[in-house]
Amino acid sequence: MINLFNKLVIFFLPIIPKFIVRMVAKPYVAGPTLEDGIRVVKELNSKGISATMDVLGESARKLEECQEAIDDYFKVLDRIAADKLDANISVKLTQLGLTLDREQCYQNIRKIVDKADRLGIFVRIDMEDSAVTSETIELFLRINDEFKRTGIVIQAYLRRSLADVVRLSAHKTNYRICKGIYIEPRKVAFKDKQTVNDNFGLLVDTAFGMGSYVGIATHDERLYWKGLELIHKHKLTTGQYEYQMLLGVDEELRDIIVQAGHKLRVYVPFGKNWYAYCVRRLKENPMMAWYIVKAMFGLR
Ligand SMILES: Cc1cc2nc3c(=O)[nH]c(=O)nc-3n(C[C@H](O)[C@H](O)[C@H](O)COP(=O)(O)OP(=O)(O)OC[C@H]3O[C@@H](n4cnc5c(N)ncnc54)[C@H](O)[C@@H]3O)c2cc1C
């Protein structure tokens, strides 16, 4: 049933009019402009929720394209500082040339992190598909060596992740731990949902045990509970962990987490490349369309 649904999504995607994609994507993307992103962050902040701002963009095909992403992030950083927002930024390294020239990508991310650091703003490096996991981690370690206000993402579906957490936690790495969004081959990723959830718990437990700060990024109520169990086990207080969710997803759970007194951060994607981004994400993982259909009909 789900497989057929996935095939249908990929088949019909190219002929779905842009305005329908915009309608469907609306709750999940703040809008095309920086002002849209800032407005949504202010709304979240007024409810006691922190944010991470993500400028939507495609993987750079030419190194010259990276400068636009750098300029966009500079503008975001200036606004976060000027408006004193409770927000940090999330950055994808392929937008900064990771697949074209690793050294140039390092120089590009360094420019963003250097500016953010001078403004006292934290930068998280998002994790993309498994073809770039090793490069992303190595580049993060270089950046983190110089700038402590930086963190990375670990995906619970990857078989390698436990070894990565053990290695990275020696540096007291600041993590976002999530299940992982890309479709990966069985060789590199666990395919069984329960195993992914068990691994998620193991990774958070290991990271907490080694003294790391973890952003527990999930909308899965079972993993929210697993987080509670581990926060209790490691006797953590607010300030030593946070929960993270995507904009527009399960706002009821969002309220439950905030009312329970936990720090919560919402991921706020925005930017003029929202259409290409939505189409790419849907092709990469048609399950997202399934989630959206469920949300539209109020199903759980
Ligand atoms: C703050 C944040 C940052 C992330 N960063 C990354 C990253 O850098 N790299 C990466 O690979 N993955 C990232 N992800 C995505 C993550 O890996 C998962 O794919 C996603 O969160 C779904 O997993 P889940 O734990 O919510 O559980 P699931 O079991 O997949 O979802 C639980 C329920 O939440 C709802 N839901 C979940 N995701 C969506 C969605 N996108 N749209 C609508 N409804 C949804 C559905 O109702 C679903 O039934 C991030 C997730 C979050 C919350």
Describe the structure concisely:
This protein is of the alpha/beta class.
Kindly describe this structure.
- Helix 8 (193-209) packs parallel to helix 9 (221-233).
- The chain has 12 helices and 8 strands.
- The longest helix is centred in the first third of the chain and has 17 residues, at 66-82.
- It has 2 domains: 1-28 and 286-300, no CATH class; 30-270, TIM Barrel (Alpha-Beta Barrel).
- With 300 residues, it is α/β, with parallel strands linked by helices.
- It has helices at residues 2-12, 18-25, 34-46, 66-82, 102-118, 133-146, 161-169, 193-209, 221-233, 251-259, 274-284, 287-296; strands at residues 50-55, 87-91, 123-125, 150-155, 174-178, 214-217, 241-246, 264-270.
- Strand 4 (150-155), helix 7 and strand 5 form a beta-alpha-beta unit.
- The protein starts with a helix and ends with a helix.
- It has an 8-stranded parallel barrel with strand order 1-2-3-4-5-6-7-8, surrounded by 8 helices.
- The relative contact order is 0.15.
- The radius of gyration is 18 Å and the shape is globular.
- The model has no long low-confidence stretch (mean pLDDT 92).
- The chain binds flavin-adenine dinucleotide.
- Flavin-adenine dinucleotide binds next to strand 4, strand 5, strand 7 and helix 12.
